[in-house]
Design goal:
The protein contains 21 helices and 15 strands. With 543 residues, it is of the alpha/beta class. The protein starts with 12 loop residues before the first strand and ends with a helix. It binds cobalamin (B12) and iron/sulfur cluster (SF4).
Length: 543
């Protein structure tokens, strides 16, 4: 985005701050924050000078970099993006904004702000909270500032009245055309993907990898650009917040929108033009293929044709997250031909009972056939798993661990989480019956004396299962420390093997056999040969 210049009443300037995660890349690849970049693109298209501050990609400590940025111009509006996982860090930045630029109008937006506006006012220095998609409320806010009009009553915001009460003004979700225009405005040419790639490449010590093939595989994974073609998700999984995001902002059931085939192609071409070194495009939609999907087959055909005609590079690959019950052999074949390399599936659990609790019981019968066909066709399924639910039994946990191990050995990648995290807005987080199962972390906002208790775990009701899960978690953390000293980055497949390894003695004590320990160690070494000489301290941590 352009440089800040002194604002006048008719040309406000806006600074947008992405969610701040000081443990960048700990869980997964980081990338430029798509939400604030899309907003910046929409504001710039409307002639509003806007800059993005990305705290995860600074040369100096982000706090100092932010102060410098704030002092480099006069900002009429500063927007802070929030998520549950990053909230304490997002708030730290918001308080810096208030201290350095006391006159700025500070707005919070994003997932956490949408579901918890009252918490934002309580903990943060905010003048206004944006609910849901930020495009319309921000444009309205700027227009009013330009016109010198009052800033109250904007649709899609929450404000605090004189009595301290929170007033919410709902907004309808973006229509299909509005969503398309917003996605088209995303300024990919300005988004610093190369800076992220360089950081990731050095973090992975790319040059040190043994074979060219392994290096290429890593590069394809790292040199990726994220594209979102859908606004959130209709599936209603009980642990998920995303599925309720638009409804929360609209105050009623919102309809979904997504790009058409030709619009997806337009975006792919733009991304390639903006970042010619890109190897993989990650479709970041919550779910990319629906059961009644009319887009996936024509899209794959169009991609194949575009590669053949040279419109997009033939080696370009794709990753997407999909519903497993939406996959058919025909779709899988078409996706493979188009260059889909990794298919994400929210499997969550292998126990039909737990899947029912998560409101996705219908996927169970599709797991085995779809994973088998996907693997046979040369694509890598990436399974997200949650080891336990509030009503899980030890058998459920055992079943999921055993199946996870089986699929890992067959070539799936797995991301594993021990319990449900009570994300604001998720059905399970709102269930009062689960309050006794909910555990809190004492969070502090650095640089302030603000602190609060944030819900962080929903543990199983059965105390035996909770005990097993918590012991696995502490064993996992004890093992992770020494491993991370030796390896630059620990991918999900290794983390999942560690979870399995940690579970073996704990589950065995309760009569649940998961796998042979020496075999699991061999699987771990096979994926991490360099760690072999230093295995002793790691083994000690599991004892
Ligand atoms: C892409 C993505 C990632 C990428 C992020 C890449 C990147 N830098 O963009 C990666 C893979 C790194 C990732 C990681 C994780 N993610 Co994630 N991720 C997503 C996903 C699928 C899409 C986000 C996105 O780009 N949306 C598209 C943009 C356009 O939408 P948006 O960000 O919501 O922004 C819009 C509005 O929110 C609003 N807005 C946003 N910010 C602001 C700021 C202001 C000032 C205003 C006015 C408005 C505003 O306007 C924007 C435009 O309309 C969401 C699900 C979802 N559908 O949102 C989950 C989601 C955000 N992730 C989630 C989680 C849990 C995680 C992880 C913790 C997973 C894990 N266990 O490892 C990690 C945490 C990483 C971290 N440190 O924060 C949760 C967050 C739950 C919560 N309530 O906070 C979500 C909601 C999924 C879910 N339902 O569980 N994630
Ligand atoms: S977990 Fe995935 S499929 Fe389920 S509601 Fe959330 S985004 Fe949709």
């Amino acid at each position: 985005m352009g440089r800040a210049r002194r604002s006048t009443s008719d040309s406000p300037s806006v600074l947008l701050i992405g969610p701040y995660d000081p443990h960048c890349g700990e869980f997964t690849f980081l990338a430029p924050p798509l939400g604030v970049w899309r907003l910046a693109g929409v504001l710039e298209a409307a002639g509003i000078e806007t800059k993005v501050f990305d705290p995860n990609c600074c040369r100096e400590p982000p706090q100092r970099a932010l102060e410098r940025e704030l002092l480099s111009g006069t900002w009429d509006i500063v927007g802070v993006s929030t998520t549950g996982m990053t909230l304490r860090f997002d708030l730290e930045l918001a308080h810096i904004v208030r201290r350095v630029t006391p006159e700025a109008f500070i707005v919070a937006g994003g997932m956490e702000a949408t579901f918890r506006p009252e918490l934002m006012f309580e903990l943060g220095p905010f003048d206004l909270i944006v609910l849901g998609e930020g495009e319309r409320p921000l444009l309205d806010l700027v227009a009013r500032r330009r016109a010198g009009q009052p800033l109250g009553g904007i649709a899609g915001t929450a404000e605090r009245n004189k009595d301290g009460q929170i007033i919410r003004m709902p907004q309808r979700a973006l229509s299909r055309d509005e969503l398309r225009d917003a996605i088209y405005s995303t300024p990919y040419d300005k988004m610093p993907y190369s800076a992220y790639w360089e950081r990731l490449e050095s973090a992975y010590r790319i040059g040190a990898l043994p074979s060219k093939a392994a290096r290429e595989a890593h590069l394809a994974e790292i040199r990726s650009v994220r594209l979102i073609t859908l606004n959130y998700c209709p599936m209603g999984c009980t642990f998920c917040s995303s599925t309720n995001f638009l409804h929360e902002a609209q105050g009623s059931v919102a309809s979904l929108a997504r790009l058409e085939t030709d619009e997806c192609l337009t975006m792919i071409e733009r991304i390639v033009a903006a970042h010619p070194r890109v190897r993989t495009i990650i479709f970041q939609d919550d779910i990319f293929v629906f059961t009644q999907d009319r887009r996936i087959l024509p899209l794959c055909d169009e991609i194949v044709a575009a590669k053949r005609s040279g419109r997009i590079p033939p080696h370009l690959q794709f990753i997407s997250t999909n519903r497993i019950d939406a996959m058919t052999p025909q779709r899988l074949t078409a996706m493979k031909q188009a260059g889909f390399r990794v298919l994400g599936f929210g499997i969550e659990n292998f126990s039909p009972r737990v899947l029912g609790e998560f409101n996705k019981g219908q996927i169970h019968r599709h797991i085995e056939p779809v994973l088998s066909v996907a693997l046979a066709s040369g694509m890598t399924p990436f399974l997200d798993l949650i080891l336990s639910s509030p009503h899980s039994t030890l058998e459920d946990v055992g079943q999921t661990l055993r199946e996870a191990y089986r699929w890992l050995r067959q070539g799936c990648e797995i991301g594993m989480y021990p319990y449900v995290i009570p994300f604001s807005g998720a059905a399970l987080a709102r269930d009062p019956k689960l309050l006794p199962q909910t555990y809190y972390a004492h969070q502090r906002v650095a640089g302030t004396d603000i602190a609060w208790e944030q819900p962080v775990k929903i543990l199983p009701i059965d105390p035996i299962v909770t005990d097993a899960i918590l012991r696995m978690e502490s064993s996992f953390e004890a093992m992770l420390g020494p491993l991370e000293q030796q390896v630059a980055h620990l991918p999900s497949r290794l983390r999942s093997l560690l979870w399995i390894l940690c579970s073996l003695p704990i589950m065995a004590e309760r009569g649940q056999y998961i796998a042979d320990e020496s075999e699991v160690w061999s699987e771990l070494y096979a994926r991490l040969p360099t760690v072999r000489p230093a295995a002793a301290p790691i083994a000690a941590a599991t004892a």
